[in-house]
Amino acid sequence: MLTVFLLLWPVAAALLLHFFKGGAARVVALGAALVELAAAIFAAVISRGNVSGQFDVNYPWVASAGINFHVGMDGLSVLLVLLTAFLVPVILLAAFRREYENPSSLYALVLFMQTGLIGVFVSLDAFLFYFFWEVALIPIYFIAGVWGGERRVQVTFKFFLYTIIGSLFMLAGFVYLYFQTGPAASGLAQHTSELSAFYNLNLSSSEQSWLFWLIFAAFAVKMPIFPFHTWQPDTYTESPTVATMLLSGIMLKMGVYGVIRWLLPIVPYGVSQWQPLVLILSVIGIVYGAIIAIRQQDIKRLIAYSSFSHVGLMAAGIFSLTQTGMQGAVIQMLAHGVNVVGLFFAVDVIERRTGTRNIADLGGLTRHTPLLTVTFLVMLLGSAALPLTSGFVGEFLLLAGVYEYNAWLSAVAGLTVIFAAVYLLRMFQRVMLGPDSSFTTTITDLTGAELAVMVPLVVLVFWIGLFPNTFLHISEPAVMQLLNVVKR
Amino acid sequence: MISLVILSVFGIINLFLGFLRSNKLLLPLAMLVLAIVFGVNAYDWSLGTQSFFSEMLVVDRYAVAFTGIVVLTTLLLLPFSEKYVREGEANLAEYYSLLLFALVGAIMMVAYNNMLMLFIGIEILSISMYVVAGADKRSARSNEAALKYFLMGAFATGILLFGVALVYGATGTFYLSELGAAVANPANAEFAPLLYIGILLVIIGISFKVGAAPFHFWTPDVYEGSPTFFTAYMSTVVKTAGFAAFFKLLFVGFGGAQSFWLPTVLAITILTLLVGNLGAVAQTSVKRMLAYSSISHAGYLFIALVAFDQSLSANGIFFYSLAYSVATVSAFAVLKLVADQRQREDYDGLGGLYRTNPLLAGCLTLSMLSLAGIPLTGGFFGKFFVFSAAVNQGYIGLVVFAVVMSMISIYYYLRPVIAAYLRPLPENAQPVQVSSLQSVMLVVLALLTVVLGVLPGLVSGLL
């Protein structure tokens, strides 16, 4: 029942929010998100060391078609639920002081989206998964479209078309799998869309080969993997910071999670057929994203490309099909979520005070804002994978995983670490150090509320960096089990 | 059967109520009667199969379910005629009576067991529609629509009747069940040419009525020209009844000749999907876009006919019609309110709706998402059931084509939503006035859309 609570609580809070105005609304929203976080932590604590089948809930949903409302969590789900539950209050808090038009709708959409995200991570039924997948996407269209920047309409539209068409391919794949289950009788009730039934299908290798692309389309767009990424920098830049944080912090992980849970075990032969191609695409994405990031003038765009580069490494790690790579992807999902949200928040702080995100216009912030400087630097180093910070553990495991597959590929992928240091430190140097610019003379340091956002993120950067086993232990049995399914 | 009697009798009483010169009474009374009819119809569900007029009409669960849809649709639509009530429209009583008579026709179309009953049902429905299409006498557009609809409709009726006559000539019966046996009987092979031409003509006649391509030419003009309120009625009730009748005819009557009519129906399906979706992309008027979209939905419903699976197809058509009707009524209702008060029907006319009327913008969004078949809304499961039926019979290519078409449809369904949320308010635009009854109905429509999308099991297993 805990899973059901985690699912229904945010949406209930979102509905409730319509009865509150202005200041009260954000307090209620934040309160609800904190309750959710407490529940998620509780779930994580009691599920430690268990393999699967945690908090299973299974009701008939569309009984006439054999579709069930089946949710449950294993270690992998627990970690991602935890990440979502942690980041949503942070994101709400980040929006706290910002003047948005119609704030209660914005908060309601964020909470509504949380239900979708958690649903994606706990669904054990293909149609339920697809359903929550869309539920998580729909609010972000409105957040980006209504509260975004000047070019928001075209950008949102492009984003919408990319993601929805990707999703439809996935749906087509699921429908095909659905009809492969059970006896080929007339009457839909003979079939089932259970995840475990999909795992046990006997699909021929040519079937798997095209099913792979149908299902992978949605995940590749969402992550995004080169060359499905063209929506991403525009959307990240034009969206309000709340949406950018949601997109990069949590939604990107929907794609990674989808690959681990819904792609690898269902079409293992398909995966092994396309493994080299996907690995090469991922590595191209890593290098390409990093090089473009170096050239960026807009900080938000720079982080967008850096995120694109990092996710390429996660994809490469997963597609190495090694336990190391997989575990690296899991821990990197957490680390990246924390880092990127912190980075976007710092950019938002700078933009709000100076009115610009242009690197050339900024400089010398350090002297006026010691707190911002320190927290920003921590996020940055975490993202650049400095040892003892969050990014290091993940990138190390990911690169080790790719190395097990192919040493040369790993060497090229390893460029990400160097490149990330280049563009991040260069950006830091030009924005925070050096002489003052006309934009930065009146800047003030972080307020109490902003510190309340940054401090937990900083703590987590070090926690993941110093004690990765806290999290790795939770996901290990689940990852092992999934890999066993893949390699059967 | 009792519902037919109530509707007919009250339709006539309603005509006389028009003499009272008090329009305020008409709307609540008509809604009350529809609510009673809905209840009576629901009661029929428990009675099992009953037959009337020496089995020419058979009220079984299939008929009851589809009657439920058309009555519910009318009931939900009625409050949006409030403008006519307020302005003291002189012919309001007649309009309501025509709608009730049209319902009688629709119910006969879903409950027929004899091709003559089908024909009479279609005619009762059509003739009422010819009149209401021209309800706006002062508008040249409306007059043109009525004339076009009448001429095309009369033509289609002729074809249909000719087809029925040929089928009778070949099989010697009007009764569906006997027809089914006769069509399947190889002893009748010598009459096959007669029968086949008859079947083709009947299919063409009904395709005209439901607005499927290539017999759709009247649809955009008539939908655009008719007053929005009646357009909504046409594109929901007429279509639902048409498909319910079509399904029964093909399955029970012509099931034995499936291999013969399948290529025709398949061609109509593909053409309809193509014309409806591509046509809708090009439109600048929201109403015309909805007209083309209604053609495309005929195409999706046709897929269920192609699939030819007793339970899956019936279920698919039922669920799809219900989800489609609810979403369409909601879309047209919002469009009517906006168009009446802002005097424009293009996309930009919806601009800024979210700021002035969040409820209208929300309902519009939900209905568009449902028509586009996006999860959380009834339209998703509608498409799911229809496509499943087709996939189950191995029509993978057709379903892929339909999915591509619905990807295109997302483009044009999103345009009104973008306009409502992201485009600026048109100059001098006031908030749209919505009465409390209309608000309630809009909320009910939105809830129905979501309930169908979240808990489809409530109705998907009925048939």
TrEMBL record, chain A:
It is a multi-pass membrane protein. Keywords: Membrane, Transmembrane, Transmembrane helix. GO terms for molecular function: NADH dehydrogenase (ubiquinone) activity; NADH dehydrogenase activity; ubiquinone binding. InterPro entries: NADH_Q_OxRdtase_chainM/4, NADH_UbQ_OxRdtase, ND/Mrp_TM. It holds the Pfam family Proton_antipo_M. One of its GO terms (biological process) is ATP synthesis coupled electron transport. It comes from the Bacteria. Residues 124-416 form the NADH:quinone oxidoreductase/Mrp antiporter transmembrane domain. GO terms for cellular component: endomembrane system; membrane. Its main location: membrane. It is found in: Endomembrane system; Membrane. The chain crosses the membrane at residues 76-94, 106-124, 130-147, 159-179, 210-230, 242-264, 276-295, 302-323, 329-350, 371-393, 405-425, 446-466. Belongs to the complex I subunit 4 family. NCBIfam families: NDH_I_M. This is NADH-quinone oxidoreductase subunit M.
Automatic annotation (TrEMBL), chain B:
The chain crosses the membrane at residues 25-43, 63-80, 92-110, 116-135, 147-171, 191-218, 230-254, 260-282, 289-308, 314-338, 359-382, 394-414, 440-459. Its EC number is 7.1.1.-. Its main location: membrane. It is a multi-pass membrane protein. Residues 113-409 form the NADH:quinone oxidoreductase/Mrp antiporter transmembrane domain. One of its GO terms (biological process) is ATP synthesis coupled electron transport. Pfam families: Proton_antipo_M. It is found in: Cell membrane; Endomembrane system; Membrane. GO terms for cellular component: endomembrane system; plasma membrane. It comes from the Bacteria. Belongs to the complex I subunit 2 family. NDH-1 is composed of 14 different subunits. Subunits NuoA, H, J, K, L, M, N constitute the membrane sector of the complex. This is NADH-quinone oxidoreductase subunit N.
